[in-house]
Amino acid sequence: MHNKAERLKKAKPIAPSSADEALGGRLPPGQTLTAKFPILHEGEVPRYDMEKWRLTVDGEVEEALELTYEDVLALPTSRIECDIHCVTRWSKFDTEWEGVLFKDLLSRIKLKPEARYVMFHADPDYETNVPLSDLLMDNVMLAYRYAGEPLTDKHGWPLRTIVPHRYFWKSAKWVRRIEFMKEDRPGFWERNGFHNEADPFEDQRFSGEALPIPEDEWTRKEFD
Ligand SMILES: Nc1nc2c(c(=O)[nH]1)N[C@H]1C(S)=C(S)[C@@H](COP(=O)(O)O)O[C@H]1N2
Ligand SMILES: [Mo]
Where is this region: Disordered (predicted)? Predict the structure, then answer.
């Protein structure tokens, strides 16, 4: 008697089968939404003498670059809005960043044809690897402002990367060197049991057996 559309119109609203549906498919599996901004890193927050600070771009490039902070600020500025997802199970929606799109930096560099992967080197002694093809998207950036303010030191001032479509450990705070590579090489967490690709929507957390991270661990960290 009724076609499907009619039936749907008459049906009482039903509870979404999962919280994720209510969130419009934006929350990856196993993640919890937070409004606060957790602060996570290994080691101490670095301090800089900005006169001496440089961003090095090297590896499979025709000519290596050494950029001062002024050089970085003089590159075209863009603004992005994105959701971020940490492997310790927190996600934060609608974060706003300002900085230089990776593809705008790339347009200033002559890559060697062999360049296919990138290692981001950061303080203190942090590395993370991403395929070059992944960095060409419109929302991958070297950020120096968050939510309309300069980055705070704990969130990566003076410069951090934002790679929104990968778990947040792929977004290096305090980035100092961008190395283009022929072959892929694992970074810090990638060598320590975490997934090389790290796609939150594919639940790519670990390279082997799941590591025992307590589900509420992130709630005990520092926030702002
Ligand atoms: N240099 C550096 N960058 C880093 C890390 C780190 O330990 N050192 N931790 C990563 C991880 S695991 C996460 S979740 C995010 C946290 O960024 P936030 O403190 O701004 O939330 O930074 C990433 N970038
Ligand atoms: Mo993380």
Answer: 1-30, 205-224
